[in-house]
Amino acid sequence: MSTIVTVDTVDIRFPTSEQLDGSDAMNADPDYSAAYVEITTDADDGHSGHGFVFTIGRGNDIQTAAIRALSPHLVGRDVEAILDDMGSFWRGLVGDSQLRWLGPEKGVMHMAIGAVVNAMWDLKAKRASLPLWRLLARMSPEEIVDLIDFRYLTDALTRDDALQILRAAEPGRATREAELLEHGYPAYTTTPGWLGYSDEKLARLCREAVADGFRMIKLKVGGDVDDDIRRMRLARETVGPDIRIGTDANQRWGVDEAIEWMGRLSEFDIAWIEEPTNPDDILAHAAIAKGVAPIPVATGEHCGGRVMFKQLLQANALSVLQIDATRVAGVNENIAILLLAAKFGVPVCPHAGGVGLCEAVQHLSMFDFIAVTGTTEGRVIEYVDHLHEHFVTPTDVSGGVYHAPTAPGNGMEMLAASREEYTFRG
């Protein structure tokens, strides 16, 4: 038996605003940041669990404080008992009534729980000597559904529904795992599209994206409609007619403005419009989806939890569902969301802009392909070419695909030297 001995948190911030990397219509000067946690045990195996919450600078101190508030739930606990029942562990953290009051089940406290849950999954995968995607994809359907809290979901997804989905995919798991290892998982890139980039830089990065094998790029929109038209025309002329171009408004508009704006951009054959309005406004998303059709609406990176995703699906408010590895309460809740999307037949194309999100979310998409949906059709993982050098197992993207990681863990462990160099000290 081993026990948890420390829960160490670090406020890590990268000065990405200096080059306007990550800039969009709502976030003009983001500094990609991580409220980082490392969980250590008294076992002699040398393993520790790593997780984080992605933020964009100020406020990261609040997020690290929220993670520290969970220490009493962890220090002194039996590690094996937690790892053997990750569903109960999740429910115990989320069910702390005094901390839950701050959400409930959304926001800073919920994200802090996600960092801790993800760190324990990292530890579990390392102890199994498996990458997280493979650990999850080798669990039985019964073990997978035991991870999920179905409270609030049963009007859309029951335990039996989830088991049916997972059992239907079970026979082809080994074949799909081999296919994933050989061919990778489709990616698209947002690298050319940041709103603060010059036209020259936009065109150059578009050319490089196509040369690198990407079949889809994404541009930020929503600052000025005439500027957006100019940038979209430049991008389309640069990449040609066969490359998909997505757009992302980062919550910029109300309903009427979104419909009108996208009407102006529709001539450029838009792959989707992402986050057109407030992420909590389900009815507005539904109205926009009708108003901009046939342009698909994509959203989800700021959805607080599985209940909001359920409602977006029930309301036909999205055509592309975007999970985020650190916005909800970790792996368990994201699995619930993947199953909801499968039930409704909606493709999942994760959000991965930011520090470490590419490294983290790829595991969830790969698990989805192998054990849930059995397909990559209509599915792509976002890729942004920033800050991968700071991770122990950096994302491997080439030829327009994510190559499946084989190193044990969840991919979220940052190099000790990087943590030390970029710790924010006020």
From TrEMBL:
The molecular function GO annotations come to: L-fuconate dehydratase activity; magnesium ion binding
CDD domains this protein is in? rTSbeta_L-fuconate_dehydratase (cd03324)
Required cofactor(s):
Mg(2+)
Q: What's an example GO BP annotation here?
A: carbohydrate catabolic process
SMART domains per UniProt? MR_MLE
Q: Which PANTHER family match?
A: ENOLASE SUPERFAMILY, MANDELATE RACEMASE, MITOCHONDRIAL ENOLASE SUPERFAMILY MEMBER 1
Q: What is this protein called?
A: L-fuconate dehydratase
